[in-house]
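# nightly structure sweep
# worker-07 picked up a monomer target from the shared queue
# config: single-sequence mode, recycle default, output format = structure tokens
# input follows
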Amino acid sequence: MTTPPGSAAAPDSAPDAASDPATGGSGQRRTLVLLLATGLLLIGLNLRMGVASVGPLLDEIRADLSLSSSVASLLTTIPVLAFGVFAFLTPILTRSIGLHRLLGAAMLVLAGGILLRLHPSMAALFGGTVIVGAAIAVGNVAMPAAIKQDFAAHAGLMMGLYSMILGLGAAMASGLSVPLSHATDGDWRLALAVWAVPALLALVVWLPQLRRGPAPRRSPVADDAEFGEPTFRRLLTDRVAVSVTLLMGLQSLSFYTMLTWVPTMFRDAGMSAAQAGWMLSFSAFPGIVASSITPGLARRIRPLWMPVAVAVACTSGAYAGMLAAPAQAPYLWMVFLGLGQGASLSLALTYIVWRSPDIHHTGHLSTLAQGVGYLIAALGPVTVGALHTATGSWTLPIVGLGVLLVAQLVAGVAASKDRHVLRPAAVPAPAE
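# output follows
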């Protein structure tokens, strides 16, 4: 699992003012920085759409293709599994073509995978789903490194905006997929294909960044002696890295499990398909608010673990409501769910940046946290679906998710400590 120097965290080369926002006059620089930030956020907007659009249409897909529940659930499980598997390819790809070119390529591949699902065959449907997951995996890992490189002085703000835009993309896809299907006379394939348009738009806005090629091989610097070369083997023995990875994995398990099964839970409670899909979409709005403000609050609130505890408490409130009376106060449960999951996601992503002393470490920690984390997350939807099938009830699955929240709390408290990875425990991380 070890990667050589020059990984996903290494900065891209920037030969001129057109490709480097740090050069040029002040007016030109502001324009380039704004264009760069807009491009990054548009890429972030697409890193959930290709997956979140499937859940609300799962019953229609299953009925049209005569799929069993377990096979249909693979359409939401495969992308999460791909997030983990393909994350480990990101350092290799970054060394080959550069961080910014890789993000552009990810958008092109993402649009291709989404459009492939238009073809009326099972192979195209599942193959396109794998491609979508692979493209998003690369984007997931590369985005924190890109933000650390291009917006180091405003990393907290940008990670908050990035987390917020992830939630917005999921909300748009989950909320509009059913109406799009109705608008196309029940054509769920066309409803899914629409989400290639935002990916292509992001690619167009990102075109100026494609001039930024791969960085030269990274030479050893003083940080290596102080922090240690951030190989995956060393990170796996570092408490900070492990805690960030577990937090990423457990909060993602919660998110993708609920993304897959909340509409079914509500439909089992008597809601229509459109209303159940809307409830899932609605949960993203409080999530967007929580994602945008949590990184800023996490720097100011003491003790540092308090935001983690509040996020877990909100999520547990949603679980309790869905267990006791899902149809009685659905908006309240979705507010709790959105606040808890939005805050947890933004904390997990921001800790990747904050717990890294430099861009080099950010890329390695991002690869580990999201690679291993999403492999953990992939177990959630399948396991919950199997427990529901075995028991005929949502009680045991939701209780199981509640137990995992305790582990998420422990990991989050450890990740909140103000230390860098591979740094002696007695030396705190410098404030950003």
